[in-house]
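Researcher: I need the complex structure. Ligand is zinc ion. Inputs:
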Amino acid sequence: MTGLDEFFDYVNSLGAERFTRIFWFFVFFELFRYMVIDLVVLTIAKILKVLNRKKTQEALNRFYLEQPLVSIIIPGKNEGKHIFKLVKSLREQNYKNVEIIVVDDGSDDDTPTIGRDMERNGFIDKFVRNEFRGGKASAANLALRLTNGKFIVHLDADCSYNYDAIQQIILPFYMDSKIGGVGGNVMVRNYKKSLAATLQAIEYYDTISIGRVVVSQLGIYRIISGAFGAFRADAMSQIQGWDIGPGLDGDISVKIRKMGYKVKFASDAVCLTNAPDTFRKLAKQRLRWDKSLIRFRVRKHRDVFYPSQHFNFSSFFSFLENITYNIVLNVKWYIYFIDMVFNFPHELSFILTMNFFLYTCTNYFKFLVFSLYRTEKNTSISYFLAYIPLMVIYFGYYLRIVRSIAYIQEFFFKKSYDDPWNPPKTSKYAKELGL
Amino acid sequence: MALENVKINASSGTIEYLNTKYIYVSQSRDLKIDRSVSYAGIIIDGKNLDFTKMVVKRIRGNQNSEIYLKPIIILNGNAHRDVFIKNLIDGVIFSFDQIPLINEHVSEINNLSKEITIINSISFEAMIVSKLLYFMFTRNLKMLEPVPYALSNTNYSFPFLACNFSDFEEFQVLEMLEIATQEGLFKHKFLDRIYLCSNCKSSHLSFREACPKCGSSHTDTFDIVHHFPCAYVGPITDFTNDIDDQLNCPKCSKKLKHIGVDYDKPSVLHQCKNCDNRFQDFHVKAKCMSCTFDNPVETLVDKEINEYTLTKKGESYALQGYVSTPKDIEDIIGTVKFDTFKTVCRYEVERLRQTEGSSNIVAINIVNAGQFYAKVGSNAQQMLLKDLVGEIRSSIRSSDMITFYSSSVILVTMFEIPTKISQRIMDDVLKLLEKLIQNNFKDLVIEIKSNVHQLNYNLSSELQINQLIGM
Ligand SMILES: [Zn+2]
Ligand SMILES: [Zn+2]
Ligand SMILES: [Zn+2]
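Model: Output:
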């Protein structure tokens, strides 16, 4: 008998009850949360979008009639080489009433020369330099201080933007006056560069982009991407700008929510970014993101769980969902793993194969079905089909291990305060104050 | 050296010493520069700086070599301390008694002046360069140095050359020197660089840091403070209060304690009081004090200030005169040399003395020639002169002659014709010339004058030509 026959015999012998017992992790979390709920919510979102066509058009008309000034801020260090290309893509935007403010956070390359030159030639409206690096939050806050617009759009210098990206990210503010922040849809530009980049492109497609449509629809969208986010200027001045990072993207969204504003995801506001092209660099990036989840959700903003003047249900559920499906899920997976090792030691190879099979099928199903809901595509979806089976390893093992390491480092050692992403002078204070 | 050898004639304003006659110029007398031709030197009362400068400028800026090469002595006063004047005079005395001290030097200059062959250059540039070469030769100068001079429109002055231009045209001095250097008459050594207003070429500029948006220099400057714990960034005024010197963070209300530890000042920011624009990089603007135009510094015209040394070629041209410009007088058909013209006039005066009758000489003067030539290229200049000569030629009889006294003065003979008719013909010629220039050089305004002079057989032809030109 071949291994394959054995495997099918094993699958046949499983009844529904035993299947659920052995593959509970898949059934309850993966299938239920990430497929059934997603599909239902996506469908609702799609229907609402069609129903709201007239409302959307009216909002667009109001937006264009008012022609508000949109302040685009681009803080960063050593980003001079990207700025010219970025600004060129911004000048192509169909929405023209923008001001572009670049803040150079203590660059040690030729960024000051490039920036000054572009300012003098009217390519950008303002170029301001901090002689001493103060970290991303302070650079963004300095930029914020110089804005005159009704809306603030925060960009990363190494991204590029669809011709209508600004219009799409501002439009939601005209659909609902309670909206205080809107996140853009980030996609991977360099998906062909390496395997790591390709897998991330698929991840951005399914988990991040689709996932954000779903949570946004549910009213629990939580992270306005730093690469592309828009804010009401009055909301920004109420919360007095960004707090010290890393993970300040998530932090600012929470602060806006606490002020009683809604936060939305605009899937049509598309931004292309370069993903880390090696697994090593990717691990570094994800360690930072995952640590910030602990630091900001569990530590800094734990008050959303307590009844207080800022309490509101969507913040509460947003946090709950976030913590459940990240931290708890991560722990549960280990429980599942131990459960299998102790209770089904003889079937382990079958269980592993079956899990792989189930996840891959779901991944294919999701990738293909979700394509129907996607408004923006990088390239033909067929390019990615061959890579889908690898996603099990990418999600199931690689990202999970990285996440586990991050949680442990942050929970027990507050490692994020040592991140060179911030200058030590600022991290030191943030740590003492528990920020 | 005895005082009795110096004879002062108060009524005519002349001083004589050992047969050398000087003319004395002071503010109380009429200034007739033409008169100086017959004197060995000019003594100017130096009490009033402006007056002295004006007289010196008019002498050195004259087109007649017998005037512009004339030795100038300053009497009394402080005028000779002015660097501009100092470079244009040949001596200083404090009383007429001291004339014997400078007399020899004056004769020396006059003797050298006689050695040179004055050639009338047709182009304005060649004429100016020739003047310079003659002046340097008669003063034994081998080098031409710019003098820093606050009253110069180019900050550095080449005084002798500057005399030929109005203040607004002074930048053309540098162009003259560029031409002379290109022609190999001078070697140059870099000394400094100046910046000129792009509108009027003046270097009297006031540099200011201005708001990049509205150009105002009415601005405030703030330190930007970054509070580390909360990442608040804002001008220091956000942190101050009216009660004490304490700095408090407006975001987290904490006290700022120690610069570099819990906060720092990563940059400064300027705020325009005129338009409220906040910015970090000033635009540097240069406001022209001559024409009030506010230049962005990038648009200023930069010029090198050099020190010039005569080359061998330059030295030889100082004796022969500088004619080898592309605008050489011989190129223009229908003209005669100035010397020929003078000879013809001399014969005509002789003839008139015997036969009586009416003969005239006419000067056609392009009043703003310097400005005009500076604006058009040398080819256009040559074309214009050719056309002018052609037009004049077709209005006069074939026996009459045309010559260039200089590139801006054309002399014409109109012999054996009543002065009134001469006058009328000339009026018509001027109208034709003006129309011609208007057609060819649309945006240039040119001013042409003519003077008709009836030859008087009791006076020398030479004198009458000089009078005509001097008018
Ligand atoms: Zn000017
Ligand atoms: Zn201003
Ligand atoms: Zn603070």
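Model: Summary of the prediction. The mean pLDDT of chain B is 86.
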